[in-house]
Amino acid sequence: MTDSYAVFGNPIAQSKSPVIHRQFCDQTGEDMSYTKQLVDEGQFKQAADDFFAAGGRGLNITSPFKLDAFSYADHLTARAERAGAVNLLIKEPDGKLLGDNSDGIGMVNDMLNLGWEIAGKRILMLGAGGAVRGVLQPLLNQEPESITIANRTLAKAEDLAQGFHDLGNLKTSSFSDLAGKQFDLIINGTSASLRGDLPPLPDGLITDHTACYDMTYAAEPTVFLTWAQHQKAAQLADGLGMLVGQAAESFYAWRHIRPEVVPVITDLRRKMNESKKKAG
Ligand code: ATR
Predict the structure, then answer these.
(1) Is 197 in the pocket of ligand 1 (CB under 6 A)?
(2) At what angle do helices 262-279 and 17-28 cross, to 10 degrees?
(3) For domain 104-238, which CATH number applies: 3.40.50.720, 3.40.50.10490, 3.90.230.10, 3.40.50.300?
(4) Where are the domains of the chain?
(5) Does ligand 1 come within 6 angstroms of the Cβ of 191?
(6) CATH 3.40.50.10860 describes domain 3-101+244-279
(7) Which of 60, 108, 177, 250 has the fewest CB atoms in 10 Å of its CB?
(8) Sequence-ordered list of residues with C-beta below 8 angstroms from that of 38, at least 6 positions apart, any chain
(9) Known catalytic residue: 66?
(10) What is the pTM of this model?
(11) Confidence of residue 145 (pLDDT cuts 50, 70, 90)
(12) Atom 2 of ligand 1 has which residue's CA nearest to it?
């Protein structure tokens, strides 16, 4: 029987995960299906029970169900525990469900694939919500010099720094107090981008070698990446590679085969550009 996998979310129509996993299957010859499933708010447990009762082997979970999946898992990986959220459920041979979080490792692997260095670097992380919590452990595992978490609500940055301080050098800041500081890598983890907003950042944060990464992605450069370009950042990337990276890590957890990410990222980017041209 073909092994079945799915992604649960709401909304879900926009999800690229089925296309990504189809390409991973084509590369590796794995016999599996992967569908997207719209789950009503409050119905995560029922939908997951039904999926696994019907023989499902694993799930990805996207907004707004990552906390539900965290509670639903029978046990958790250390990185999911730290992230406080689960985007990946794996059915184990004994029938138990392992909850994992592959978002952070997906982002870190994307940066390393791009040839960016993290070890020893001064990182500025913008935002202190769920998306940032999800990536801090894998980032700190790369041993940066420091991570400064800047957030509109400073108390949330302080809570995060407190929760991860045993893993590395974490600092906190308001946006305005960043004035006069410089960073090697700036990551936008706020949800501001999604609404076309930009955190109020002072000039001068960017040096001639600073790389800027937006955890969201779009056919057009995000407002954050447009700002970074105007500030003369040396390198820019959006979160498309992070999306494919978390999918690759999910595929590996389920099938024990590592797919190639670069051709999939290239193909998705080409399709996004084509539909942008058509829309224009
Ligand atoms: P997610 O799961 O996407 O991280 P979240 O947990 O609601 O969503 O966190 C959203 C993050 O984006 C927070 O850091 C939020 O700042 P606050 O903690 O001060 O709310 C940040 N954010 C959202 N809109 C923003 C804006 N317009 N300017 C600056 N920061 C913004």
Answers:
(1) yes
(2) 140
(3) 3.40.50.720
(4) 3-101+244-279, 104-238
(5) yes
(6) yes
(7) 177
(8) 9, 10, 11, 12, 13
(9) yes
(10) 0.96
(11) very high
(12) 130
